[in-house]
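anyone seen this seq b4? input:
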Amino acid sequence: RNFIDAEREFKTAVDFARDTGSSVLEAQALGSLGLVWGRQRRFDEALSSFRASLSISDRLNEKRITVRTLRNIAWCQFELGDWDNALETFNRLNSLSTAKTDLSHLDQLINVGRIYQEKADYSAADKNYQEALAVARLLKLDDQAAFCLHNLSQIALFRHDYEKGAHYANQAIEIKKATKNRRSELVSLVSLAQIEHASGKTNLAKKRLLEIGNDLEGDLPLQALCQTELASIEADQHHTAQARKEFTKALVAIDAA
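predicted toks r here
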């Protein structure tokens, strides 16, 4: 919907709620106003509105509004890169949540895993992704399961556990292939090639990346990732001219993306 109209509508609702002394309506309207700002990536303004809503819902012990608002606060903090406060918000959400196997809890586990991954706390990230993977499988949510497996493969790569990384990557690839998500499958194939390269299977990684490259027309970010890895392999093999060529291709793709 039109953001200007929506913003005006919810500001009017906030004023009406305050004029009539309806605190629950005020909390709901503030939450809706925060969403309008958040969807425009105006996260600081959104946070201000969400916190005002949370203050009311906490005072009234309106748990349903509190839970919804905490999720929105954590979303804004995550988008702003405010990892520590986002973790604190997610921890409070976890303490309020009774259902540990629903979609909301799954999203929470994944987001906490992403935060720990960004913070390079790979042990904590692994733990959250493992829990999320179990819930995703229980709920038969293939996309979320594949997402967890892909990130687990990346964590294993960073921890130099290449066998486990390849295992997770191959599982992610199989799910993505079955669900016909070719672009996402290619991302995990590049991840597998990175693991193969790091574990010394250089020729296999190079062959895989060259095959992937045939499917990447128009996908500039993935082209850049693929060509950067190829350049690294060529450099390791002391193919200086080819390494320079692949790095140049990667830079061109990054600039054009």
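The mean pLDDT is 93. The radius of gyration is 23 Å. kinda curious what u guys think
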